Structures are given as structure tokens and as C-alpha cells.
Amino acid sequence: MSKPVAAARRYAEAAFQVAQAENQLDRWQADLALAAEILAMPEVEQAVDSPAIPLAQRQAVAEQLLKGRISPAALRLVDLMVGRGRASVLPKVAAEYVRLLNAHRGVVMATVTSAVALTADETAAIRSRVEAMAGAKVDLHQEVDPNLIGGLTIQVGDRLLDASIRGRLERLRDQLHAGGRLR
Q1: 151 is in which domain, residue-wise?
Q2: Residue 9 sits in the same domain as residue 33
Q3: Which of 139, 169, 132 is CA-nearest to residue 155?
Q4: Residue 1's pLDDT is what?
Q5: What is the model's pTM?
Q6: Which among 39, 40, 29, 91 is positioned nearest to 62, based on CA atoms?
Q7: Is the N or the C terminus of the chain less surrounded, counting Cβ atoms within 10 Å?
């Protein structure tokens, strides 16, 4: 595990513990997402990550952009991260916080990738199928990858269901290379 990922996990776990104690789980999720979005803007990122800029100025920039928009507790976490030169890790902290929140609520993350954008009905049908498969509520993210040619793939945790034309063609190619029979 690389240092930024380990650091992100530690910050997210600490934020999650505070959020649980304050009964503010959803507020912290929104605050971390907003702070990550704002501090990831290229001009802001340069200002808060540059060691050439005095620490007090970097912290003032972050506070000026976030004060009143996120809770004081979340602002203290951002201030701490800027002070330790870890502001660039904030998007990973926000993502890890969502993972912890979903695990706490028994929600499984899934990603459906299709060759074209899915309709609302198709998305609902896929969500219900994945929920039945996983036996839990599903937080479904959608991605579009024209390289799939057709069909879709569904990633749930470390499991991948590949029902794409590209996947079928790759499996067919592998069978032909291996000299196996076609089914």
C-alpha cells in the first residue's frame, strides 16, 4: 500500500469516527466531497500544495475558500492536511470515506460499464439484478466505454461479470489460440 493511500485511509477513518460521534455521517460526506472538489482545482491545488508559499498563506487560502461552506470540524481536518502537505490526498480521503460509509450502511459498490449510455429503465433493471445477486443494496456507478462494442460489464467488489462483445471476442480468440473446441 502506498503512502498516499494509507494516509487517505487514516484520515478517512478519523473523519468517520468523528462523524459517527456527532451523528453527522451525511454532512461529512458532503463536506469532504466539496473540499476535495475545490482544492483539486488546478490553481487552488498549486497554491495549497506549494512548499514555496508560507504555510500560513496556504492554510488561509483553504480556509477562505471553504469557511462557511463546510462544517468547522471538516475545515479543521482540511487545515491539518494542508499543514502536513497532504491536501492533494483529499480526493482519496473523500472516496475512502464513502467506502467506509457504504460498508457501515451495508451498501455494496458496483460499476456498470456499457458501450453506450444506459436509459433509466435499463439502469433500474441492472440495479435490481445486482442487488439480488449481491444480497444487499447497491450504489451503482455508470461508465461508458465504446471499446466494449456492445453489451456491458459489471464490477462488484473484486467480481467482474463480462457480458460485452469485446469480452466474448477475446474469449473466442483465446479458445482459438489454445486449440480448444468452439462451443
Answers
A1: 107-178
A2: yes
A3: 139
A4: 46
A5: 0.74
A6: 39
A7: C
Is 2's pLDDT higher than 60?
A: no
pLDDT at 180: 55
Helix axes 25-39, 42-49, angle to 10 degrees: 90
Long-range contacts formed by 98-106: CB under 8 A, 24+ apart = 98/29, 99/12, 100/12, 100/13, 100/16, 101/16, 101/25, 101/29, 102/139, 104/16, 104/20, 104/25, 105/137, 106/136, 106/137
What rounded mean pLDDT belongs to the chain?
92
Report which residue type is found at 26: D
* pLDDT, tens digit, 9 for 90 and up, residues 136-155: 999 999 999 999 889 899 99
> CA-CA distances (angstroms) from residue 30 to 3, 74, 101?
25, 10, 12
pLDDT for 66 beyond 90: yes
Whether 53 shows a pLDDT value over 60: the answer reads yes
Strand partners, 142: 112
Q: How many helices (H) and strands (E) does the chain have?
A: 8, 4
Q: Name which of 126, 121, 124 is nearest 153 in CA terms.
A: 126
Examine residue 183 and state whether it is found in any structural domain, yes or no.
no
Residues 23 and 95 reside in one and the same domain: yes
Please state, in angstroms and as integers, the Cα–Cα distance from residue 152 to each residue in 12, 139, 171, 172, following that order.
Answer: 32, 17, 15, 17
d(C-alpha 126, C-alpha 166), whole Å: 20
